[in-house]
Amino acid sequence: MTTIPDLIQQAAAEAVRTIWGVTVAPADLTINETKKEFTGDFTLVTFPLTKHKLGSPEQIGEKLGAHLVASLELLSGYNVIKGFLNLSLSDTAWLGFVASAAQTPDFFRNTWGAGQTVVVEYCSPNTNKPLHLGHLRNIVLGYALREIMAANGFHAVPVCLFNDRGTNISKSMLAWQRAGLNETPEQAGVKGDKLVGNYYVKFAQQLKAEVAALQAEGLSPEAAEAQAPSNLAIRDMTVRWEAGDPDTRALWKTMNGWVYTAMEDTFRRLGVNFERYYYESDIYLKGKETVQEGLENGIFFQKPDGSIWVDLQPDGLDQKLLLRSYGTSVYITQDLALADEKYQAYRMDRSIHVVGNEQDYHFKVLFLIMQKLHKPFASGLYHLSYGMVELPTGKMKSREGTVVDADDLLDEMITQAAAETQQLGKTEGMDEHALQALYETLGIGALKYFLLKVDPRKRMVFDPNESIDMHGHTGPFIQSSYTRTASIRRKADTQALTAFSPDLPLEEPLLDAERQVMRTVMRYPQTLREAAETYNPALIANYAYELAKDYNRFYHEAPVLRTAFPHTSTFRLALSSLVGDTLRESLRLIGINVPERM
Predict the structure, then answer these.
(1) Alpha-carbon distance 512 to 524, whole Å?
(2) Average pLDDT score over the chain
(3) Which residue from 472, 471, 467 is spatially nearest to 448, judged by alpha carbons?
(4) DSSP string of 430-483?
(5) 515-525, pLDDT tens digit by residue?
(6) E strands of 113-268, at which residues?
(7) Whether 248 contacts 186, CB under 8 Å
(8) CA–CA distances in Å: residue 243 to residues 88, 279, 285, 305, 505
């Protein structure tokens, strides 16, 4: 839809041509929301026009302002401060905006990505441990990014890669074999991913003891690590797996099956689904074919020990191992194949990898290799490099068993949400099923919002207590703001109100609180596009918080259903409903549900 800033841009460009005979493109005229300390709704920056020798910034602003107010009915006044022309919208314009936005289906959709396909790969768990807090940030970022791209018109495809083979997977398998208990998740009374993760920790503990014993015998730390029996056994198990050894493959299939079942349950709790799952075990051999192709074309080279490398030193990087001397692949081997697989399936214009910043170098290498191989999709590759999540107690380490299990954290958040809600005492009349659904909506929403409100590129510290605060910069605060709009709608349904009409004048002038909340609502399409262009879901999360704050001021200063003026009341009801729709849609994009009552 054409926005009011678009109309002002077009009118301003026409005014420059009329007044001075100079042609400027509307897009070259910068229109911003007026800063709150100044009078006005939108500000046109006049500094760039001085290059056409039209006068000083102030003189340009005065002439433009007078012309625009005289020619545009939607403007009611202007003021000039240095190189900034502040324009005020008329009450009629604001009423028209609320009516059109409420009745226009595409207000919450942009079309600039139409005709393009983007594949968003996220989560990418290893099958040797359960999902943890770090995975949760990855998942909520990837899910939100997919939804944001879709809302901008892209055909957005969510995919997940399971890293289901290799040395780390063998570690859990070997520890399980050594224990000799034939333990299953049912016997242990835990989810399958938790059980497998416990054995991964046990392997690390055994290896640490072996290395310490070898060092006590005089070996260097490096030699002790290389000669530790557990590491030699892992290498042997990995080779046997790649050779197709039936017993090794059978154990691998069983233990991975436990993990897949467990992780699907966690995905369900988070409201996440994928169009397609990829498995490293299915594609690593194709990766070897890509490596061989690069070797034959002189892009890669082979060392005397048989290992295959790519030399990226001329590009400012380093030499990178692609295939080990004994024939087994490394992570980048399968990533080479996966990129081809995704392109064959979707012919994507863009491919986004949501992976932590600890893998920055890996993706620099991967993308550069794709360019050297002249892959048609190389220019559309992007790494959404997000910062690691830490707890107030410090960094988590999987092999030491100090991670925060995703399911345990979800349970904790739901429990905290229940305690907070019960303390507020506003759930009278809700049955147990409705209460549990509310607690889950609030608890999981609080977790997701806390992980998303920080720019993804920044490291963050997750504090469960801070995230659940009903009055802070949190998901529950935004959810409670939505429930206010829902409550007002329910009350309005019991009253004989006429429908809102923008053609009927209000009985009293618009309040500043009303203007401010409308300015924020109007910014939604622009924020939606910017979030997609910058791959930054935090923009949507923080927009929702700002809108919720503005709405709460409006709620207290402009009573919706208590005014004696019927036209003002129906307008405020329409505006309140539009805010509710905008909050609900903003939260939907970042994977957060809204309760109708709390």
Answers:
(1) 19
(2) 93
(3) 467
(4) --HHHHHHHHHHHHHHHHHHHHHSS-TTS-EE--HHHHT-TTSSSHHHHHHHHH
(5) 999 999 999 99
(6) 117-121, 155-162
(7) no
(8) 73, 18, 12, 20, 80
